[in-house]
Amino acid sequence: MSEGTMQRRAQRDGQYEQRVRRTKRLRRALVGAAAVPVILVAAGCSSDSGSDSGSASGSGDSTQQGSGGANPSASASPTIQAAAFQKLPKACGVLSTKTLTELVPKGVKSAKEGTSDDATSRASCSWSSLENKGVKGSQFRWLNVSLLRFDSDAARGSGEKQAQTFYAKQVQDARAVPEAKNAASQPLAGTGDEATTVRYDLKKKEGAFKQQTVVARVANVVVTLDYNGAGLAGEKTPNADDLVKAAQQAAKEATTAVASANGVDTGSGSGGTAGGAGTTSPSPSKSASKSASPSSSPSKAASASPSTSASKKS
User: Signal peptide: which range, if any (predicted)?
Assistant: First the structure.
């Protein structure tokens, strides 16, 4: 074999080995390139799985937090007990003719109804009597009945609670009349849910007046009855005990009239709520804001001299 032939064979062998090495490198590159997507897919799946898990967990946490943050039993506004009585009777009709004849014998038909912007919440009526005995003088009587009803209100509380507060104030006012002498007060049983009688003497230029104020509460209504009497122009002063007894009986009759006007039969006639007013649950009236603010204290009217109006009567 010639030297030239051997050189060509060696060259071919060298070229063949180079092709083999290139082929091996290419295969390794292809295998590596194929493995990269597999790794990326696996990593992507792993990432998505974690993301989903985190999202689910986050969603659960969020839901849990949202559920925990919201108060399923949110504090409801306090329930106010409905007022037992929704209306008032006519103030000039709460006393019978028989009772008026005893208290104001010459003034049964002298009823004067007080002004009111809401007759279902406040009402009043007054009577005056002047029995002229000629040279012996005259007997004077003055009677006033005031009714005030309270509605239940979320801001002020139940009608009954408001009535209790006003009742206490009325009693206090009756005890604190200026220039009153020999003042005394005592609780009165059998009249509404609670009642108090306040009595005192009041000296005026016309004569010595005997004043009786009976304040009674029946459920969410306060009844204030003022009754006074005097002997004028030389006539003897009336017996205070008789006046007190008459005033107390009239107050009892007035509280009964309040209950009856609201369809409650008190049975015993005491005007209390035990006979059924406490078990009624009518819807609250619309006049709560008005009934809670009485324009004036009825007991203060008693301190004024009623003889002016009486002198006009014959």
Answer: none
Residue 231 lies in a domain: yes
- CA proximity to 237, closest of 207, 215, 196, 198: 207
Q: How far is CA 248 from the centre of its chain?
A: 30
Q: Does 225 share its domain with 282? A: yes
Q: Model's pTM, two decimal places?
A: 0.67
Is residue 84 one of the residues assigned to a domain? no
Cross-sheet strand order for the sheet of 122-132: 112-113, 122-132, 138-149, 221-232, 207-218, 194-204, 181-187
Task: Label residue 6 exposed, middle or buried (CB < 10 Å: 0-12, 13-18, 19+).
Answer: exposed
Q: In sequence order, what are the residues at sequence separation of 6 or more whose Cβ sits closer than 8 angstroms to the Cβ of residue 175?
A: 183, 185, 198
**In which domain, by residue range, is 132 found?**
91-310
Query: Pairing mode, if any, of strands 221-232 and 207-218?
Result: antiparallel
231 closest CA partner among 303, 138, 128, 305: 138
- Is 99 within a domain? yes
- pLDDT by residue, tens only, the chain of 314 residues: 555 555 555 566 566 666 656 666 656 655 555 544 444 444 444 455 444 544 444 444 444 444 444 454 445 567 889 999 999 999 999 999 999 999 999 999 999 999 999 999 999 999 999 999 887 889 999 999 999 999 999 999 999 999 999 999 999 999 999 999 999 999 999 999 999 999 999 998 888 999 999 999 999 999 999 999 999 988 899 999 999 999 999 999 999 999 999 998 876 555 555 334 443 333 334 443 344 444 444 445 554 444 444 444 43
Q: Is 86 among the domain residues? A: no
201: its two tokens:
């003497």
